[in-house]
Write a structure and sequence with these properties.
CBS-domain, 3 domains, about 475 residues, MgtE N-terminal fold, two-stranded antiparallel sheet, mainly alpha, Tetracycline Repressor, domain 2
């Protein structure tokens, strides 16, 4: 019977079908990765465990900036031990990423010999910066310990003004001639054994080392080998002289999307180059200055600076704010006749709120900076809270006494002076706590504390200030 016969009996599916395929498995969604542990918490856990191998493992792959971040995030009495436990991984470049006061204190704690040993691989620009960071005598000792050639290179960098392009530039430029072919350039690079880090283009100079343009590394391999450098080089290049301020250098990088910037002298002689990394460091430093200056905090303040030192450094701006607060109070005092019995309270209320506001802003600025740089985690938040509370209390006592004395002299009322002094102590202490807690909570809720922290902080300091002042006044003044 033909297989195409319409009368044929259809085959039994049970006989013709092969083994029954198993039903498809339901795809299992991938497990969510565990939450990333902040670097400072990883280090704190390793230190708490006392496991030297674990500490070394955490520190092994850190970049100098990360190592500096870790060192800044632990109390001063633990920094030297952490440096020593890092062993060969301790890099003197980390000192360049710290506030000067922190770097100097750490250098004195670990010993200058350890700093010198860790500075072997720094280039002349980094070494000059390290000389500036160290105390004067230590910086001179570091220069004396160098060989003549290296010392001359470092002193040449130090000869330029501070915060200038000359202090930023690196002298490790690779130069080629315009009449060379790309084959010659490739051979030259191979003979050198490589090129410096962060090199995106070669510098083209004439026989007198005058700068004439740049050659992209991409063009070196993209064009035919018999192509000359002059045919493919870029002769329309932005340059700076070494005296240009580093702020202007950063603006040039931003406005021209540069990866490197040649530095030339007044005669056009090539001196070196500035990299995008250098410009980013300048931008970051300026951003930190702007944030901290809003709260009257010194950019050089250590996250865990001694309480008295930190309180003293912030007291000046609190005094400046006090003058503006009394100015507002004096304006309100012009309506003394209309306010009658409560005039003293109305005149002094802005002082209480304003002093709390500036104290909270100082803590807020420090905290936001610490969060942005990942220097604050669950492991050190408690210590920081205790420190800021004590600072708020000390400054509250200082300025409470000052304001209380002024109020007593102004209104000839001893009880009023005591009430406002107590209210300022309460409000400035509460403001210090709020300045730390508010950004931490907002950060946990994925809310940017830099945008909303000040608004919430102002509300807290105003409410606490008015309630404490008017509440104490109601008990000790109006009730009497």
């Amino acid at each position: 019977m033909s297989s195409t016969d319409p009368e044929a009996t259809p085959p039994d599916p049970q006989q013709t079908a092969g083994p029954t395929a198993p039903p498809p498995e339901t795809p299992v969604p991938p497990a969510e990765p565990p939450p990333e542990v902040p670097l400072i918490d990883q280090v704190s856990e390793a230190l708490d465990s006392g496991d030297a191998a674990k500490i070394a493992e955490v520190l092994a792959d850190l970049e100098p900036a990360e190592f500096a971040q870790v060192l800044e995030s632990v109390p001063p009495d633990e920094r030297a031990d952490l440096w020593r436990q890092a062993g060969d991984e301790a890099d003197a470049e980390a000192l360049l990423y710290m506030p000067t006061s922190v770097a100097q204190a750490l250098a004195e704690e670990i010993g200058l010999e350890a700093v010198f040993d860790a500075a072997d691989e720094l280039d002349a620009t980094e070494m000059a910066e390290l000389v500036d960071v160290l105390p004067d005598e230590a910086g001179e000792d570091l220069l004396e310990a160098m060989d003549a050639v290296r010392r001359a290179e470092v002193e040449a960098v130090l000869s330029f003004p501070e915060e200038s392009a000359g202090r930023l530039m690196h002298r490790d430029t690779v130069t080629v001639r315009a009449d060379a072919t790309l084959a010659v350039v490739q051979r030259y690079i191979r003979l050198r054994g490589g090129i410096p880090d962060d090199t995106d283009r070669l510098m083209v100079v004439d026989r007198d080392r005058r700068f004439v343009g740049t050659l992209s590394l991409l063009d070196v391999v993209r064009y035919l080998e018999d192509t000359t450098v002059a045919q493919v080089m870029d002769d329309d290049v932005v340059t700076v002289t070494p005296e240009v301020e580093e702020h202007q250098v950063a603006i040039l990088f931003r406005d021209h999307d540069l990866l490197s910037l040649p530095v030339v002298d007044a005669q056009g002689i090539l001196l070196g180059r500035i990299t995008a990394e250098d410009a980013m460091d300048v931008m970051q430093l300026e951003t930190e200055r702007a944030i901290l200056s809003q709260g009257g905090v010194d950019e050089d303040e250590d996250l865990f600076a001694p309480v008295l030192t930190a309180a003293r450094s912030r007291a000046f701006w609190l005094g400046i704010n006090l003058l503006t607060a009394f100015l507002a109070s004096a304006v309100i005092g012009m309506f003394e006749g209309a306010l009658e019995q409560i005039v003293a309270l109305a005149v002094l209320m802005p002082v209480v709120a304003s002093m709390g506001g500036i104290a909270g802003s100082q803590t807020l600025s420090i905290t936001i900076r610490g969060l942005a740089l990942e220097r604050i985690g669950s492991s050190n938040a408690g210590r920081l809270l205790r420190k800021e509370t004590v600072i708020g209390l000390l400054n509250g006592l200082l300025w409470g006494i000052v304001v209380g004395a002024v109020a007593f002299a102004w209104f000839d009322n001893r009880e009023l002076g005591g009430v406002i002094a107590a209210a300022i102590v309460i409000n400035m202490t509460a403001a210090a706590v709020a300045g730390l807690v508010i950004p931490l909570v907002m950060n946990r809720l994925n809310i940017d504390p830099a945008l909303a922290g000040a608004v919430v902080l102002t509300t807290v300091t105003d409410v606490v200030g008015f309630v404490s002042f008017l509440g104490l006044a109601s008990v000790f003044l109006l009730a009497a």
